[in-house]
């Protein structure tokens, strides 16, 4: 028999066998199609959501050819890059003051015969169902076809008059409004009807209203001119969306630059001219990046491990086929077929089912991506535009699926080729000793791969990390048969069902090991990404600087507010915010003229003077900081940054605004409700007139130095009456109660000053606001209701909240990973349970014959499934830690480089285990798999005659 006819017969047998055993074939196809589906969906989703230049241009230009705008420097020559990332004035050009620059006639720079629409935003305050909200109103003719692609109508109609607007869907949802609702622009009190809802393709969470040109700014200006109590509008710069008949060329861009106009042209950005024709790029040489985006080390590693996972997933399924087809293969041997032809039949089965699974997986991936596209877009916050389907990449994914089928059938083919005809026909397996070399090779590969990955992480080499991680995982795979055999010895003291399950797994390593490998591969990838993501999340949490202490909101009144406004604002907060508790009032303090009101010069200041010396000055600043940073580890740098001497340096100006001195006037309530310092001694000190210092770095021998510059502006008549005389500087040494060091980073406050102490040293004070303990941050509705109440008595108050660092994206990623690994674990464990049941028919028949109740068979099936799932999860956790740790070492290396260049930059790069995800995989999923296997195990067995 020649080669081609032999393979033709093998494929024919494989096709008929697949049709004969439809259930088993469907199972094999599903196991191959599942990872192909996932990779296909991920590829199409990534490509469709990737912010390519074409999509970015459409989001900014709509269907226009170009966006024209003024640089704000007047009609002076400019230079720009083709994609407008950088622009400037030509070398040697005189400097231009933008505040005195004249207007630019932008329309004169349009190509001849162009048509355009204008876009001009203006910040405004509008009424909502709950109260009022700050929002941006954009004057843009949304009904013009030029705008299509930038934003589109979702519901209702476009504005047709000066009293109609459209709103983004996100604003309608947060404001409690709908199409047909009316909203009023505060100030000129212009009322508009919302006639439609729109969405911005690039920002689905945008809060904005859109009106036709002339519907907002012009009447607002007219109302302000008639009534001086109405503040005039503060519109942003006008932009022009231009559609030219022949497009906007680079020559048109250069001509517009000569007139002081900047241009973002679709034609030029997509097909830029050579650098020799771009004056700015020609001078800069290669200094400008090409905009290409490289895959991160994490993505590269995960993709490599995903490919390995796809190869492993189909192993248990083909082990089922090999076991069930033994008699057929034996008959092939009796008809004169040699071992090569037996192997060809098994491999042909892998090719047939692998091809079907690959095609089905790609088709299902495309279908599911299309079906769940709206959910994916809402989660990502932007629209795809069109699905970006790349046939070459999908073909490569399908080929991987086909190769998966062939590779998964390779081991069963070799085993089938080695079996004697008698063993195949009788179903006897014979006795074979496990390889003693393979576990040794596996241990060496595990140790060597781990070392290689760690070295790659330390050296910042992504390729070494990828290679080492794969080698380490292959090492664990090689050790699985020995591990399974060892597990079988652990059941000697267990009850009947778990003991039989462990021994059956050890005796049939040929089917148990591939199932464990499949679970391990899925869990390893999940644990790798989850561990890396958990570390990055912890790093972000460390770098995050809170605005307020957790569980608090702050009502702040501006210096211009009257005393009665503070009382009204406090009442508004207490009536409209749910879940608020204790209140602590606080005041601000200053010396001399209060420059926060309206004075421009002659201002007084209050300053806490930090003592000199190593205990008070941050060593990461000033001379010797870089030299010190070079010898610090990341942990030592973190400890140093957390000291009182350094913590105040990097949080300055980033938290609650209590003034440059960060001193507030308050009592013990501020300590307990805001600083969270429940210390009776500190409360007694405030009651006795002793300030409480939250940052010990400012204290020396229990005292602080307070420097006050009493400089008065002549217009500040009120303070002049209270403190007559010449300007002076006073320095006071105050006894203070020094709080523990952990309170040094209290947002916005260094020291709490009693009112009578401020009066004694001649400082000015005034109510500044109140802190409230809160069960949750204000919702959009509550914030709008409070803003509406504030607006009733003027604009002298605002609410400040601490929402904390958002980890929603990381939590969603971890949840998706856990669900994916759980599905794969359940699938692989279910398959191996079915295989165990097929292989153990004789044992189950014997159990039934001797009177074993059905629950024994059920518990046996459940424990068989549990053994595979739990073993695979534990091994996968170990294998997944290797790449995650190596990737974090790469991040640590980059952070250390940044820290040594800028000593105040954080080098904290923690490795955090995602115990919630690991716990879900290690406990919930195996138990669920075992319960499902026990639940669906057959109640009755048909007694058959054993082969002899």
Automatic annotation (TrEMBL):
Compartments where located: Cell membrane
Topology with respect to the bilayer: Multi-pass membrane protein
Pfam families: FtsX
Keyword Cell membrane: yes
Residue intervals of the ABC3 transporter permease C-terminal domain: 303-420
Transmembrane segments: 295-321, 342-372, 392-416, 437-459, 465-491, 512-532, 812-836, 865-890, 918-937
Endpoints of the signal sequence: none
Descriptive protein name: ABC transport system permease protein
Natural source organism: Streptomyces clavifer
């Amino acid at each position: 028999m020649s080669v081609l006819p032999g393979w033709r017969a093998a494929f024919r047998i494989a096709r008929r066998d697949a049709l004969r055993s439809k259930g088993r074939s469907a199972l094999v196809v599903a196991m191959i199609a599942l990872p192909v589906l996932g990779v296909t969906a991920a590829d199409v989703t990534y490509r469709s959501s990737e912010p390519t230049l074409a999509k970015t241009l459409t989001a900014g230009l709509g269907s226009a050819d170009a966006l024209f705008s003024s640089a704000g420097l007047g009609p002076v020559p400019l230079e720009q890059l083709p994609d407008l990332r950088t622009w400037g004035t030509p070398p040697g050009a005189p400097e231009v003051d933008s505040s005195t620059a004249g207007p630019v006639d932008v329309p004169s720079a349009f190509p001849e015969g162009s048509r355009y629409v204008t876009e001009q935003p203006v910040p405004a305050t509008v009424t909502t169902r709950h109260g009022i909200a700050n929002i941006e109103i954009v004057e843009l003719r949304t009904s013009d076809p030029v705008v299509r692609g930038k934003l589109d109508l979702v519901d209702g109609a476009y504005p047709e008059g000066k009293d109609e607007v459209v709103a983004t869907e996100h604003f309608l949802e947060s404001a409690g409004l709908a199409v047909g609702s009316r909203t009023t622009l505060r100030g000129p009190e212009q009322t508009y009807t919302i006639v439609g809802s729109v969405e911005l393709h690039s920002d689905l969470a945008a809060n904005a209203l859109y009106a036709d040109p002339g519907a907002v700014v012009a009447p607002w200006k007219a109302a302000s001119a008639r009534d001086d109590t109405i503040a005039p509008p503060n519109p942003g710069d006008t932009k022009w969306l231009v559609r030219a008949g022949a497009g906007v060329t680079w020559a048109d861009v250069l001509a517009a630059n000569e007139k002081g106009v900047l241009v973002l042209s679709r034609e030029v950005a997509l097909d830029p001219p050579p650098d020799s024709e771009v004056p700015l790029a020609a001078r800069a040489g290669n200094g400008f990046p090409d905009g290409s985006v490289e895959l991160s080390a994490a993505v590269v590693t995960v993709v490599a491990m995903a490919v390995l996972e796809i190869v492993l997933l189909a192993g248990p399924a083909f082990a089922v086929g090999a076991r069930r087809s033994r008699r057929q293969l034996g008959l092939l041997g009796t008809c004169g077929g040699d071992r090569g032809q037996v192997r060809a039949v098994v491999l042909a089965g892998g090719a047939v089912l692998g091809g079907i699974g690959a095609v089905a997986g790609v088709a299902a991936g495309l279908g599911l991506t299309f079906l769940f596209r709206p959910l994916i877009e809402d989660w990502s916050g932007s629209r795809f535009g069109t699905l970006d389907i790349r046939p070459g990449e999908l073909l490569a994914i399908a080929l991987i699926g086909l190769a998966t089928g062939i590779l998964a059938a390779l081991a069963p083919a070799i085993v089938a080729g080695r079996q004697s005809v008698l063993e195949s026909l009788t179903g006897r397996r014979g006795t074979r000793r496990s390889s003693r070399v393979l576990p040794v090779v596996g241990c060496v590969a595990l140790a060597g791969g781990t070392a290689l990955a760690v070295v790659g992480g330390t050296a910042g080499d992504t390729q070494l990390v990828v290679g080492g991680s794969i080698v380490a995982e292959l090492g664990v795979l090689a050790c699985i048969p020995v591990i399974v055999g060892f597990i079988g010895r652990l059941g000697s003291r267990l009850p009947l069902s778990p003991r039989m399950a462990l021994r059956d797994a050890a005796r049939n390593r040929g089917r148990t090991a591939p199932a464990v490998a499949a679970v391990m591969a899925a869990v390893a990838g999940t644990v790798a990404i989850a561990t890396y993501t958990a570390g990055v999340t912890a790093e972000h949490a460390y770098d995050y600087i809170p605005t307020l202490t957790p569980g608090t909101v702050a009502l702040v009144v501006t210096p211009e507010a009257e005393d009665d406004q503070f009382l009204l604002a406090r009442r508004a907060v207490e009536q409209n915010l749910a879940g608020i508790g204790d209140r602590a009032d606080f005041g601000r303090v200053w010396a001399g003229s209060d420059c926060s009101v309206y004075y421009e010069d002659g201002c007084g200041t209050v300053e806490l003077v930090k003592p000199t010396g190593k205990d008070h000055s941050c060593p990461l600043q000033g001379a010797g900081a870089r030299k010190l940073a070079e010898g610090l580890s990341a942990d030592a740098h973190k400890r140093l940054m957390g000291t009182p001497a350094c913590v105040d340096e990097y949080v300055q100006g980033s938290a609650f605004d209590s003034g440059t001195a960060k001193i507030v006037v308050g009592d013990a309530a501020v300590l307990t409700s805001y600083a969270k310092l429940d210390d009776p001694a500190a409360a007694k000190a405030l009651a006795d007139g002793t300030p409480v210092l939250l940052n010990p770095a400012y204290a020396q021998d229990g005292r602080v130095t307070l420097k006050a510059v009493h400089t008065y502006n002549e217009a500040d008549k009120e303070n002049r009456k209270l403190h007559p005389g010449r300007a002076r500087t006073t320095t006071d040494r105050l006894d203070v109660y020094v709080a523990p060091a952990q309170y040094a980073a209290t947002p916005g406050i260094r020291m709490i000053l009693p009112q009578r102490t401020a009066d004694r040293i001649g400082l000015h004070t005034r109510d500044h606001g109140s802190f409230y303990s809160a069960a949750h941050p204000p919702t959009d509705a509550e914030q709008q209701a409070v803003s509406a109440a504030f607006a009733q008595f003027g604009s002298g108050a605002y609410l400040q909240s601490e929402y904390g660092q958002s980890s929603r994206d990381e939590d969603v990623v971890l949840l998706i990973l856990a669900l994916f690994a759980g599905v794969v674990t359940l699938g692989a464990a279910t398959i191996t349970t079915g295989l165990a049941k097929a292989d153990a028919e004789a044992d189950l028949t014997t159990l039934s014959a001797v009177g074993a109740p059905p629950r024994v068979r059920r518990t046996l099936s459940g424990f068989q499934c549990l053994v595979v799932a739990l073993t695979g999860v534990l091994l996968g956790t170990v294998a997944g830690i290797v790449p995650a740790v190596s990737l974090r070492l790469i991040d640590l290396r980059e952070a250390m480089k940044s820290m040594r260049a800028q000593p105040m930059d954080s080098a904290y790069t923690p490795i955090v285990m995602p115990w919630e995800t690991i716990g879900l995989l290690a406990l919930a999923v195996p138990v669920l798999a075992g319960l499902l296997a026990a639940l669906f195990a057959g109640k009755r067995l048909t007694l058959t005659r054993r082969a002899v």
